[in-house]
Design goal:
12 strands, Jelly Rolls, alpha+beta
């Protein structure tokens, strides 16, 4: 058991065990530390007690350089509320073309919601980003569909793909100013 009624479920996941939750800065520091130690460079606090919960709420920390393979979720919506940092949330067409870029930062969009089955990813621009995510449950591990136009996590080609996406994001931003 860690501080604030947090249980360490894995090297990347802390779970709140209390019925009434009031997270303090020490909890945020604990999840930052997990992200710093994680090979995937990310970690989360789950406010929901188990994967079967109908509402899934998480505080997520992702470090710059973490690769989130473009993916989508059938019959789910998700929303993010920014706590700290900046990122680009990239939403793709079926063929991998960029449909929309959300500049997720204090100066632009501090809130994001996706309520359709579109491929998306997040590219961290600051040292790390911290946000509150809400999605509908239950969580089913193999229900996420990964885009065929992008490399899967842990495979070859990720640096060149990310360089391509970075350039496409810059081009999209320039065309949509």
């Amino acid at each position: 058991m860690l501080t604030n009624g947090l249980y360490k479920k894995s090297g990347e996941v802390l779970v709140c065990t209390d019925e009434i939750i009031g997270l303090e800065q020490s909890a945020l520091q604990a999840v930052k530390n997990l992200a710093d130690q994680s090979p995937k460079m990310r970690a989360r606090i789950c406010a929901h007690k188990d994967s079967g919960a109908t509402i899934q709420e998480m505080i997520i920390v992702i470090r710059r350089g973490s690769y989130i393979a473009p993916h989508r979720h059938e019959n789910k919506c998700e929303s993010f509320h920014l706590i700290e940092g900046s990122a680009d949330i990239v939403v793709f067409e079926e063929n991998g073309d960029i449909r929309k870029v959300i500049q997720f930062c204090k100066e632009r969009a501090f809130y994001y919601r996706l309520d359709s089955t579109l491929f998306h990813t997040i590219i961290v621009r600051s040292e790390r980003i911290i946000f509150h995510e809400v999605t509908n449950g239950p969580f089913v591990a193999n229900a996420t569909e990964y885009a065929g136009f992008a490399p899967k996590e842990g495979t070859e080609g990720i640096p060149s793909y990310m360089a391509l996406v970075d350039q496409q994001v810059r081009d999209w931003d320039a065309a949509n100013v």
